[in-house]
Amino acid sequence: MSRFSLPQDAAFQALNTSLGFDRRLWPFDVAQSRAHVRMLAAQGIISEADRDEILGGLDQAASELEAGTFPFLPDDEDIHMAVERRVTELTGPAGGKIHTGRSRNDQVITDLAMFTRDAATRLSGDLEQLRAVVLQVAEAHLDWPIPGYTHLQRAQPVYLSHHLLAYFWMLTRDIERFAAVLRATSELPLGAGALAGVNFDTDRRMVAAELGFAGVTPNSVDSVSNRDFVLDLLHALSVTATHLSRLGQEIVLWTSTEFGFMTLSDAWSSGSSIMPQKKNPDAAELLRGKAPRVWAHQAALHGVIHALPLTYNKDLQEDKEHLFDAVDTVALCIAAAGGMLETATFHRDAMSAAASDPMIAAVDLADFMVKRGMPFREAHGVVARLVRESVDGGTSLADVTTAELGAEAGAIFEQSSWLESKVSEGGTALARVREQLEQARALLPA
Ligand code: ARG
């Protein structure tokens, strides 16, 4: 019997169904159903015979899902209904008891919490690998000077190791963000029922223990309304994607003929369909291009949840595609970033030549005069004038400086001194970079 006298309109079904995207939740759905029916039997809510029949049906459904032979039907609205329908088909009346003391509202958020934990764990493992690659490439290019830029204008030279380690610390903060996501999913929502709790004496803590949750959520209304950990994961993903977009952009610049700092492995390059000479950094461009879609997913889910009255509303079904696409996109981007960096070649001469422009020592020259007693602002003015004379006269800044201030000032234009003078903690002097490498190595798993 059904409450309805008409079949669902086909367009409504097409709008309403989530099976196309939520079927990937099946391993979590099956695992939670196993834990749920074991608990029902342990509490005497269903018989042990029913429990065993249901567990058998779940095993069968799981192997069909695994093998891709699961017989989905057009009426299966989502993965939860499809699994229950199939278990009931396989086991008869026992299967009809699987949903005792449970609603799809607490079921779906439990699946999603499990998916989120799994994804956050996987991605933070991927980030740890990428971090190790960054560290290894930094170590291999310890004392290679490159220009550091502000406004994409040559600003002050740094070592390539130092520049690359900047990404190490970004990734380290990313990993911490994923750890926070895990903390946000540590309580089991299952047992909240539709929204009010259930009419059975369930043991939520037993289910939590079997599924690896540290505890249970304290409020059934909040349990089925909450999507915070999805927003948290989308936030963590957005920041990671944004970091990788900056790396992508630097790779695009550095591999250009104009910079010539870096060559990508052929395994990470593509050709042009018309220009035979081309070797394009498509993967790096996609690190740049994919990031906005990740944070757009985050913005979209904020929009879905914004002003949504408690508790469950079908709007919340929209959480999944945003989450899944963001997770898959960032996983690919992390793999690409690691693959490109690990196999790239850096060009010492080109980087060093770009970092030898005497103009890049302007701050050092000003500081030289400060150390002789001139106030910094005044020294800044003197150097600015020397720079203008150098530009107007087409003479190098080193020569203009030597002519006006003497040989001792001219000696500032030794490239290694600009780098090795940056001795402040966290600066680019080699001793400081070595300290940083130590700190970084200490964070890697043994
Ligand atoms: N497919 C739904 C979702 O993803 C499952 C929950 C449906 N609950 C309901 N009361 N219609 O949100």
From TrEMBL:
Keywords linked to the UniProt accession: Amino-acid biosynthesis, Arginine biosynthesis, Cytoplasm, Lyase
Record-annotated Fumarate lyase N-terminal domain positions: 3-294
Localization annotation: Cytoplasm
Matches recorded under PROSITE patterns: FUMARATE_LYASES (PS00163)
Keyword Lyase set for record: yes
Enzyme Commission number(s) of this protein: 4.3.2.1
Highest taxon of source: Bacteria
Reactions mediated catalytically: 2-(N(omega)-L-arginino)succinate = fumarate + L-arginine
Residues that span the membrane, as ranges: none
Cell membrane keyword on record: no
Residue ranges of domain Argininosuccinate lyase C-terminal in the record: 361-407
GO molecular function: argininosuccinate lyase activity
Pathway(s) served: Amino-acid biosynthesis; L-arginine biosynthesis; L-arginine from L-ornithine and carbamoyl phosphate: step 3/3
Enzyme class: lyase
A Pfam family the protein falls into: ASL_C2
Gene3D superfamilies: Fumarase/aspartase (C-terminal domain), Fumarase/aspartase (Central domain), Fumarase/aspartase (N-terminal domain)
Family: Belongs to the lyase 1 family. Argininosuccinate lyase subfamily.
Protein name (Swiss-Prot/TrEMBL): Argininosuccinate lyase
Species per Swiss-Prot/TrEMBL record: Paraconexibacter antarcticus
Gene: argH
